[in-house]
Amino acid sequence: MTSLPAPVQAVLELFQGPLSDVRFADVDAAGLANLAAEVEGAASAVAQQEAQLADLRQTLAERQDALLLLAQRAVAYARVYAEHDEALTEQLARITLPRAGKPRKASAAKAPGEATAQVESASAEVVAEGAIVRPAEDSTEAAEVVEEAQAPAMSGSRKTKRRLGPPRDAHNRPS
Q: Which residues contact 97 (CB under 8 A, 6 or more apart)?
């Protein structure tokens, strides 16, 4: 593929064909060919830099998402820690972190094992950062912990609802 516009290509073809022996003031076949090669080289360099920039932007977005997730978890832990400290609780209440967006996909859908490996590596990163984390008993529980950290505060977490079971209404209560 060429980055040269079709009309410019037509001029180059003319100076490579019927006008190859013709020279005007500062215009000839060799000069046109050399400058066209420089344009192609510059276009190739731009394409490479744009691809690198896209990769860097993807890396930045992934790191920002990871930082946001870790910050959300940090605030959640801090809220539990600060239950009996009103000043710290007030400071934490003033912090409003955005909800984590959907995970960005760098390529096609990932294999099921890859998702588990990412959750496990995320847990390892948290431990490496000095957080106190109870190891997950399985990858499903680890994924639930990550989802709970991303979800807004609700009336009871999924884990609590699962342990307590669905609410019973007055008609289904045992006597």
A: 68, 71, 72, 75
